[in-house]
Write a structure and sequence with these properties.
The complex is a heterodimer. Chain A is α/β, with parallel strands linked by helices. Chain A is built from nine helices and 14 strands. The radius of gyration of chain A is 18 Å and the shape is globular. Chain A starts with 10 loop residues before the first strand and ends with a helix. In chain B, the strands form five sheets. In chain B, strands 7, 8, 9, 10, 11 and 12 form a six-stranded antiparallel β-sheet that branches. In chain B, strands 1-6-2-3 form a four-stranded antiparallel β-sheet, covered by helices on one side. Chain B starts with a helix and ends with a helix. In chain B, strand 16, helix 11 and strand 17 form a beta-alpha-beta unit. Chain B is elongated and about 80 Å long. The model of chain B has no long low-confidence stretch (mean pLDDT about 95). The longest helix of chain B is centred in the last third of the chain and has 18 residues. By secondary structure, chain B is of the alpha+beta class. Classes of the chains: A alpha/beta, B alpha+beta. At the A-B interface, helix 1, helix 4 and helix 5 of A face helix 4 and helix 9 of B.
Chain lengths: ~290, ~400
């Protein structure tokens, strides 16, 4: 069983008829036939797209398909509303790929969801993949391999780089999760670390962090206290100057906090092996 | 996106915060006219988007109109932390008694806004957090309830503000929270908020940083962006949808993905040591169409410090052969003899490399791994530097 999604996941796609939504739905269907059970585009209910039924609302889609997960590809101005619509239907898993949702919107979403039954991954993330079973997101399937390494990351292509390096050496992954590069996201490192620690299929864990905020520091404290499985990590942004946003809205060193070195120190102190370059990760795990 | 002091104080005033706000001058003559209009002693303040203006000599008192003209002339000619001063704000001088700090920002860990107050006004809040963290009082704000009066009182009492000022302070705290909400700010701060000798609370200086992701619904604020105060390449990059940050090194980088772009910078520094480093952060995003690659390449090459260029592409959904064609097309549009190293990995990487190799461009070499690519780019930059 891996974490978050497997071959039994029943997924709907919010924004299925859009350019991004269409492209990635096709990819998800090709990776694991049967996973996508429907889509939602307001105004296009009753039609069919890529072989699955399209509904006007999430409520209707869930009622008709029995979906237990949603993935969101709508444009940023509608991102918060799309998440809240999925939350209203109490879907256990909501993955938001959309980049550029205003942080004030995300604060309202975050505080609405608190204590509720739904888990949000993202926004501004590549989603997740359980190799050989389910792809809920945009991580390219063919670079992954089934196995026992759990991966959690704030980046996209950097994660692919490490997945690739692992797969080349036959070191497969249980589940790889991209939690996203925004300042406020639904699921953090600690949530994923806990799930990987409790998952019997995950033997080792990889954490890919970056500058900004203090999530890696808090993850380090959690690892020290709770995680017994070996953890290797990489932190991007050692050379990033303070006060400048490095692409991701969350990747910014502010007021001397959120530096790479501070995170590396905290992780090493918790017994995590921290790689100098990402391709060292496989070696640190073997 | 950061607003200038005069723009920030203009916003504060809209939400009922008492401010000291004169007028902006772009020439000494204008400064003279404004000073005459205001009468009395004025303060001439450089309007640049950085902190430490006072220390750099960019804020000066002028007792007469002639002095205002003279000081404006001096400040308008200067450069603060590399930013040329193009505007000065002429404010009436205040009779300052006490200086305090009041700001609101996003607390990422709490997922809520947090309002902060400190009795140590006039100093950068980061400095206070470092030197005297107990001087900062914090109140988390429930985004659904908004700031409550008792929270403003907690702040006032926490910084030992005399009780006769609590009513005025609470009103200002509400005004600041409204400013933060209505401008989609990631930071709105009044620093210092002064208590004048006449016993009035008034915002003397301030700063607002707007959430770039919210500019689509803040057209009025988006218009306020001071393009003249920004380097040209930053303006071009934004228009093309590229994420670009200029750095001081010699190796221009073009990468897909923010995390991988930071990693590429880190690796250049790792192999380049003290001698060479990254010249920029540049994320071209997904897809990497030829026209976007061309704009990115032009931006990188417009930096006279660049001695070599490193392309690092991990094809996921993006196909490396398409990226390779994009780069060749871009090189057709932008001619250069700066040495370039390209590293393609992931989807159709072999095809992409074949396309690059068969194009036979003398100053373009390919590399298989990120390590090899970084080392090659570093060597090429060092060679170019020695040749000069």
């Amino acid at each position: 069983m891996a974490i978050l999604a497997d071959k039994n996941t029943r997924l709907i796609v919010q924004g299925i008829t859009g350019r991004e939504g269409s492209f990635h739905t096709q990819q998800m269907i090709e990776y694991g036939a049967g996973i996508v059970v429907g889509g939602v585009t307001p105004g296009k209910g009753g039609t069919e797209h890529l072989g699955v039924p399209v509904f006007d609302t999430v409520r209707e889609a869930v009622k008709e398909t029995g979906a237990d997960a949603s993935i969101i590809f709508v444009p940023a101005p509608y991102g918060a509303d799309a998440i809240l619509e999925a939350v209203a239907s109490e879907l256990p898993l909501i993955v938001c790929i959309t980049e550029g949702i205003p942080v004030l919107d995300m604060m309202r979403v975050y505080n609405t969801m608190k204590g509720g039954p739904s888990r949000l991954i993202g926004p501004n993330c590549p989603g997740l993949i359980t190799p050989g079973e389910a792809k809920v997101g945009i991580i390219p399937g063919y670079i992954t391999k089934p196995g026992g390494i759990g991966m959690v990351s704030r980046s996209g292509t950097l994660t692919y780089e490490v997945i690739w390096a692992l797969s080349e050496l036959d070191m497969g992954q249980s589940t790889a999760v991209g939690i996203g590069g925004d300042p406020i996201n639904g699921t953090n490192f600690i949530d994923c670390l806990r799930m990987f620690q409790d998952d019997e299929h995950t033997e080792k864990i990889v954490l890919m962090g970056e500058i900004g905020g203090d999530e890696e520091e808090r993850a380090a404290a959690f690892i020290k206290e709770y995680v017994t499985k070996p953890v290797a990590a990489y932190i991007a942004g050692r050379t990033a100057p303070p006060g400048r946003r490095m692409g991701h809205a969350g990747a910014i060193i502010s007021g001397g906090a959120g530096t790479a070195q501070g995170k590396i120190d905290a992780l090493e102190e918790a017994g995590v092996k921290v790689a100098k370059i990402p391709t060292q990760i496989p070696k640190l795990l073997s | 996106m950061n607003l200038h002091e005069y723009q920030s104080k203009g916003r504060f005033a809209r939400f009922g915060i008492p401010v000291i706000l004169g007028k902006v001058a772009t020439s000494p003559q204008e400064a003279y006219e404004i000073a005459r209009e205001l009468g009395g002693t004025v303060v001439v303040k450089s309007q640049v988007l950085t902190g430490g203006r006072g220390k750099a000599g960019g804020v000066k008192l002028a007792r007469t109109t002639e002095e205002a003209e003279q000081v404006a002339n001096q400040i308008l000619g200067m450069s603060i932390k590399g930013l040329p001063v193009r505007k000065v704000l002429i404010d009436p001088a205040a009779n300052i008694g006490t200086e305090i700090y009041l700001g609101v920002t996003n607390d990422r860990a709490a997922g809520k806004p947090v309002m902060m107050a400190s009795s140590e006004g006039g100093v950068e809040i980061e400095q206070v957090a470092h030197d005297k963290p107990e001087a900062i009082i914090r109140e988390h704000i429930d985004p659904f309830l908004g700031l409550r009066d008792y929270q403003a009182r907690n702040l006032a009492s926490g910084i030992n503000l005399p009780r006769e000022h609590w009513r005025a302070f609470t009103k200002i705290a509400h005004g600041l929270y409204q400013t933060y909400l209505n401008t989609d700010a990631v930071l709105a701060e009044i620093n210092p908020l002064v208590i004048t000798r006449e016993g009035q609370l008034i915002a003397l200086d301030g700063k607002i940083s707007i959430d770039d992701n919210a500019l689509f619904r803040q057209p009025e604020l988006a218009e306020m962006r001071d393009i003249e105060a920004e380097p040209k390449e930053v303006v071009h990059a934004r228009a093309a949808g590229l994420s670009y940050v200029k750095l001081d090194g010699q190796i221009g980088c073009m990468v897909n993905g923010a995390g991988l772009a930071m990693t590429t910078m880190d690796m250049i520094k790792l192999y380049g040591g003290d001698e060479v480093g990254p010249a920029n952060f540049l994320d071209i995003g997904g897809g990497a169409q030829a026209d976007k690659v061309a704009v990115a390449l032009r931006i990188i090459l417009s930096d006279p410090g660049v001695r070599s260029v490193l392309f690092n592409i991990f094809g996921g959904i993006t196909r490396c052969d398409e990226v390779a064609r994009g780069i060749l097309q871009a090189l057709g549009e932008v001619s250069t003899n700066v040495p370039m190293v390209i590293r393609l990995n992931g989807t159709n990487a072999a095809e992409g490399r074949a396309i690059i190799d068969s194009a036979n461009i003398p100053n373009l070499t390919s590399a298989e791994t990120l390590t090899e690519a970084a080392q090659k780019a570093v060597d090429a930059a060092k060679q170019a530097m020695r040749a000069n």
